[in-house]
């Protein structure tokens, strides 16, 4: 499997370290049910079959965190972006849809 690093170009997956699902957000420790939220965050993860957004660290390359869009059934990679850019994009999408409004 080759991962298209936005900085280094396509690289073998052995250069990367897999962290997991890019979706879960760290809960607010000041929340009233913070203990339950942290349990869910740390231990309860989905195992989807199909397209999935994952965090990968390019340990043998540019040492940047990436969000890789990979199909877990075929290992086909649809794209990769720097994690910092993906985080900004998801916040903008949440704000425009009203999900980020507090």
From TrEMBL:
Q: Which Pfam families match?
A: SoxD
GO MF term set: sarcosine oxidase activity
Provide one Gene Ontology biological process annotation: tetrahydrofolate metabolic process
Instruction: State the InterPro entries in the record.
Output: SoxD (IPR006279), SoxD_sf (IPR038561)
Instruction: Quote the protein name from its UniProt record.
Output: Sarcosine oxidase subunit delta
